[in-house]
């Protein structure tokens, strides 16, 4: 396969990995995951805008402009013959002798790869719904940054899998924040609710598209914090992400448990989202 290294697409296996890269030492870097439908990156502009924002919040240097990143993304897709799949792009602060204190304006290190994904697998969980595991949100207070520091997320995902769940739903002191790698929506009496875009969640691109689609359909959307209790009494629950699109939640386990039906609002938004990508 072919990977991205700085601004070159090169054969995998030939990339030198520096142990003093701050990405390895401190998780000092950011990333984006862009989906590929029919050989084209989906919502690239939006993903790139968030990448730029993450870089700015951490004072990382952006070495290339949007057109270079787009060109490299397209090349990753074509060289790897990706029909449907995903592109991962990462940028670390760069290489320097280990020191917590970072210098500004370092030479960032950009890497990336592409992977084929079976749309049938996604369609399956979208048709049947997924089980989720309710767990405490133990992450830091800058979840708005798409940083490489994902230990809280990966611990939540592992715990979820141990309980035969495909995703974790995290709460902070009883307020539902988001999944381990997705945003969480509930429907109550026809109204959609999701955590507001604050420092406590990643403002998902899929989340933003779904909110817009709901509004276009006259479904009222409240970007408001809701409680675990609200989650338990919801009519419908679904998660959104680049790799899961709109996926219904049919079960919640953990300190609380509940079952949900796949409802009309979820199905409508799932359907409308599909229309965006074709
Ligand atoms: N994760 N919240 C978290 C913590 C995430 O990691 C993600 C995405 C989302 C959804 O964002 P978007 O709709 O822009 O994908 C929300 C990606 C897919 C990942 O880490 O693989």
From TrEMBL:
<dbReference type="GO" id="GO:0047810">
    <property type="term" value="F:D-alanine-2-oxoglutarate aminotransferase activity"/>
</dbReference>
<comment type="similarity">
    <text>Belongs to the class-IV pyridoxal-phosphate-dependent aminotransferase family.</text>
</comment>
<dbReference type="InterPro" id="IPR050571">
    <property type="entry name" value="Class-IV_PLP-Dep_Aminotrnsfr"/>
</dbReference>
<comment type="function">
    <text>Acts on the D-isomers of alanine, leucine, aspartate, glutamate, aminobutyrate, norvaline and asparagine. The enzyme transfers an amino group from a substrate D-amino acid to the pyridoxal phosphate cofactor to form pyridoxamine and an alpha-keto acid in the first half-reaction.</text>
</comment>
<dbReference type="InterPro" id="IPR043131">
    <property type="entry name" value="BCAT-like_N"/>
</dbReference>
<dbReference type="InterPro" id="IPR043132">
    <property type="entry name" value="BCAT-like_C"/>
</dbReference>
<dbReference type="InterPro" id="IPR036038">
    <property type="entry name" value="Aminotransferase-like"/>
</dbReference>
<dbReference type="InterPro" id="IPR018300">
    <property type="entry name" value="Aminotrans_IV_CS"/>
</dbReference>
<protein>
    <recommendedName>
        <fullName>D-alanine aminotransferase</fullName>
        <ecNumber>2.6.1.21</ecNumber>
    </recommendedName>
</protein>
<keyword id="KW-0032">Aminotransferase</keyword>
<keyword id="KW-0808">Transferase</keyword>
<dbReference type="Pfam" id="PF01063">
    <property type="entry name" value="Aminotran_4"/>
</dbReference>
<keyword id="KW-0663">Pyridoxal phosphate</keyword>
<dbReference type="InterPro" id="IPR001544">
    <property type="entry name" value="Aminotrans_IV"/>
</dbReference>
<comment type="subunit">
    <text>Homodimer.</text>
</comment>
<dbReference type="InterPro" id="IPR005784">
    <property type="entry name" value="D_amino_transT"/>
</dbReference>
